[in-house]
Design brief:
Helices cover 73% and strands 0% of the residues. The chain has 168 residues and is mainly alpha-helical. It folds into 2 domains: 1-48, Arc Repressor Mutant, subunit A, CATH 1.10.10.60; 56-166. The protein is elongated and about 60 Å long.
Length: 168
Amino acid sequence: MDKRVIKTKKAIKDAFVRLRQDKPIEKIYVENLCREALINKSTFYRYYTDIYDLVEQLQEEALEPIRQFLLENPVKEEDMETFVDDIEVTISQVYGHNKALFSNQDETLEKTFQLYQETISENVSEEARLRLSFAVGGAYTILKNNQYTLNKDQKDTLYALFKRIFAD
């Protein structure tokens, strides 16, 4: 990719993140974003159809490390605990570094779980798939019920439950 394109897209992303700190996505307009990024509207529209397209592309870019992790580390029945540990770290890093992109937590978690479904290893038994689905669904519900933040005790409890689910 051309260095100018990379610089322009970075300027757009940085401007979006700055604006997102003060405003919900619905209140960020292309005009304001372009002013903040020091670009013309035509430049913005060369890469994105609207703000929501920008957000979608930035989310996809941010989720790529999770996708890569899942592709490079297929779930193995005998090693589910390690998988859970590793995926938790990967997901925490991605979302921690990209909070401005993920304002709709339901949609974000749904995208993460879709990635999991798309990349789960074929050589995992039906029981292992059910355990993983149960754990993922449970984690989703717990996060949703706690406004997407967990304190240390809640994280420890969730981790202990995961260990039980994957223990034979």
